[in-house]
Model the fold of this input.
Amino acid sequence: MSWAEGGRVGWVALTVYAIAMAFVEAACVVTLKQLYVPGAWAPPFPPLPAAGLRLEQAREIATLIMIGAVAALGRPPLRVVLARGLWVFGLWLLFYYAFLEIVTGFPGSLADPDLVFLVPRPWIAPVWFACLVSIVCAAFARILSRKGGGRTHG
Done:
């Protein structure tokens, strides 16, 4: 199947979902930073209070669960679940940074360091690295969705 099961309409829906989820994620991060560490968009990143850290880690885990759940809708083959999950993850992270930049001005440059993830422990990396991972995930999703060839449906 091309572009994996679900056809183009399904992939458009996944794309819209990823972009909307990126906005929600950016809004949550902006709000939580304003609450716990105002103005902390650059290193050294101040430690979050324990309650804030647990909330942020739970939010990150919930985000990954949401990506996995949407990717598995309709019980497609594992290859398709992986393709869908990588697609949503890649777009979500790219658009997350786009929305952060629109709302806060951060990142000012792709070289700016960021606290990319807090699970399982804090990961600090330049924004370009997170964007590169996103692009690789989206590209690999396209490759996976085409593997096996076959007819197109939908």
About this structure: DSSP finds four helices and two strands in the chain.
